[in-house]
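User: Please predict structures.

Assistant: First:
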Amino acid sequence: MNPHRPEVGEKFRRFRDRLAAERSERRGVPVRPEASVHGGPAGTDARADLTSPPQRNAEHTGRRGGRRGGRRGGGEELRVPEAEFTSYYGRPILKAPVWKWDIAAYLFTGGLAAGSSLLAAGGQLTARPALRRAGRVTALAAVSASAVFLVRDLGRPARFHHMLRVAKPTSPMSVGTWILTAYGPAAGVAAIAEAAGWLPRHGLLGLAGRALPSVGHAAGLLAAGTAPALATYTGVLLADTAVPSWHEAYPELPVIFAGSALASGAGVGLLAAPPAQAGPARRMAVAGAALELYGAHRVETRLGLLSEPYRLGRPGQLLRAGRLLTTAGVAGALLGRRSRLVGALSGVALLAASVVTRFGIFYGGVASARDPRYTVVPQRERVEARRTEGGTST
């Protein structure tokens, strides 16, 4: 007989006993000593040999099931903590927006056009020709610059035309295209009407000169009616993307952009109109600053981890500068009511605040897309919250 065969048989029996003990522990049945000592040598406690393998198996099972938490189907309690976040070589999970600085500039010029049209309508309805003229001319210049920035991003002008083939109310891009299509001609006609006084009084041009003020009046009101949608649709457009800090800020972005549009329009009025006619511009400045500061504060505090991109780095610097400039512009508009110089400086501060705020929001979203932590960690938190809610409801 081979002297090694009893040793092999002994190992096999121990292996069989380990399997039996593991099954018993999984089912919650205590292990009987006699079931653990088959063929064991006298004076040895084979149960000591059987305790460590099930423990190692439980740890291994917990490690595999640690993501789910709680208990697995066999009833084992998992004690392994949740794994720390890691990414594949630290690479982004989302593709960062391909938009460049021209889209951030488009966000500003679109808001400036909307705010200027509202300013012009206020000057038109309150018989303040300086406000009306400044607002209409600025609106046309701003919407023209917006078209340039948009076509630059699209690559070819024909792409803008192709978007007019359909109207999709569920697409912010499609809705924005139609808003621009309705707003642009109205703002253009209103601005052209300001040239009526330069036309001759007789002949065909004289007839056009006499008709332009009435046409410009209607066009100015139409542009002002479209202006709120123009000012806010870009905020909805950003929030409709998968970029974390834009998407999560969907309630605040339209508010920020509306306030920024009002503040920039007020800046135009404070720059162009004498203090005696700048009353509507000062009121617009107060309303716009309140909306802009409230929305910016919310995105920097409400979003938890996703607020970080708006507080750190270049976006944080831009948004802090925007708050300071907005506050200074409003203070100058209210305290320097009789000074044309103070009013002009306040207007410059409000315009600069609108620029840096739009760029800060833009670069904050880009930063959140480039760091995978801002994508994965909030997703895990939402999954955990839903799991907790499901557990409490049952």
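Second:
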Amino acid sequence: MTDPAAPCWRVMRQDDNGNRYLVARDLTREAAETLAAEFEARGHKQLYWVAAEPAS
């Protein structure tokens, strides 16, 4: 069972023009890092990174 107090993570992308997009959210940190690494490995010019979800 996951800890409800644990932070959720998201994967973000920045394109060649500096526009930022949400790729996925409500992930564990491990899942977010895995997803970002998969996108990076595809060789696209976009930048992908993992960030904690902001507190609501």
